[in-house]
Amino acid sequence: MNLKNIHNVYFIGIGGVGMSALAKFFAAAGKAVGGYDKTASSITAALVELGIDTQFDTDIDTIDEQFMDSRNTLIVFTPAISESNSVLQYFKTHNFQILKRSEVLGLVTAHTQCLAIAGTHGKTTTSSILGHLMYQCNEKVTAFIGGISENYQSNLIQNGTEISVVEADEFDRSFLTLSPDFACITSMDADHLDIYKSEADLVETFKEFTHNIKPTGKLFIRKGLPLEGITYAVNEAADYSAKNIRIDNGSYQFDIQTPTGLIKNLVFHLPGTHNISNALAAMAMALEFGCDTAVLKLALQSYRGVKRRFTYQIKTEAFVFIDDYAHHPTEINAVHQAVREMYPNQKVAVVFQPHLYSRTQDFADEFAESLSQFEATFLLEIYPARERPIPGVTSSWLLEKIESPIKQVISKSEIVGEIKNLGYPIFLTLGAGDIGVEVSELKEKLSYAY
Length: 450
What we know:
By secondary structure, the protein is an alpha/beta fold. It is built from 14 helices and 21 strands. It has three domains: 3-100, NAD(P)-binding Rossmann-like Domain (Rossmann fold, 3-Layer(aba) Sandwich), CATH 3.40.50; 110-302, UDP-N-acetylmuramoyl-L-alanine:D-glutamate ligase (3-Layer(aba) Sandwich), CATH 3.40.1190; 311-449, Protein-Tyrosine Phosphatase, Chain A (Alpha-Beta Complex). It has helices at residues 17-28, 42-49, 86-92, 101-109, 123-136, 199-210, 273-289, 293-302, 329-342, 357-362, 364-371, 395-401, 415-422, 439-449; strands spanning 8-12, 32-36, 53-55, 73-77, 97-100, 113-118, 141-149, 154-158, 163-168, 182-185, 218-222, 230-234, 240-248, 251-258, 261-268, 311-315, 320-324, 348-352, 376-379, 406-409, 426-430. Strands 8-7-9-6-10-11-12-13-14-15 form a ten-stranded mixed beta sheet, with helices on both faces. Strands 16-17-21-18-19-20 form a six-stranded mixed beta sheet, with helices on both faces. The chain has a five-stranded parallel beta sheet with strand order 3-2-1-4-5, with helices on both faces. The radius of gyration is 22 Å and the shape is globular. The N and C termini lie far apart (57 Å). 43% of the residues are buried. The mean pLDDT is 93.
């Protein structure tokens, strides 16, 4: 398909962070862009501000007439949308060109120098760091981010279209549509076992993804993964190694040993060893691409993070409220490590919303172990997303496995009262469901209390 011949693009599930980035890209390219989502959000509000027609009902008659011409309209959908969705079904039965988001991303990036970040954890942060580094180095880059960059207040970073930075998403094997010049794999922990038959199946699919790298391309891997490529590691020998790590005034300082020398005294503001690893991966890719070292050092220091990735909502001497997207035991462990490093010997309360019945069932013991590290653990009911309930898999069932001194299943309306009554100095909200919608109200109500 030649995207130049497409005049109109209509997105089903336009409120998704990956979908909305593509919508912004096509709008910037001069296409007519519209879309449907079931609920309004800050993301859809930003699209409407850009003049992108967005609807929230499934009435076909309310779709703008220009998108109803099948000859020059492309329909893009996300697998998060049910196959039975009436909008999707209409376009399928009326001979429209219909592609998954991942397929469109593959088409968009096919004629660029593509730098792709894969991995079960760390994709969004690493790709946003890399996009920021390339932008600050004035490279002709478009970066599609799976979150909202704090530096750009957007999930799309643009300074040209010769280079693309993308997240290579393993969900639904989407990343197999990409043919990158550079690829990075941050992790291959078991996840999405509703898609993959086993952890071995997931690992084999990651290996299949590496075969898509162009013959002249490069593969970057976190040291220890069962792959061959340019390695990176924190506090151990590798092709690129972060070393001499110290904390100064709440920020990291460290050096990077590269294949050609030592880069000293980098400053990075995100907490957690996992984020140093993410920064190191992005720096290695940018250096191998040929970016200037001095500019990269300044760019890394100016990086401010991604919303809902260890995002401070309240930060006073008496009380700290941090929100994070963590929805897998490995990610919860990473948040825990960062909190303990930044706030040693402080009591921590966490409100966690499990995401997907299948993930909760598959990793129940691992979730229990990671959540038991906190002094108080509160669970919301499981966020189903695309799934139907699994009998016996509930938040109460998961709670029984958790060994925190204080633990309880609560509703969203009870969060503020429980946190106030507890009086702990550190409070976390974790999860990939709709808990993020509650954060601004929690921030407002808890600000008055401290």
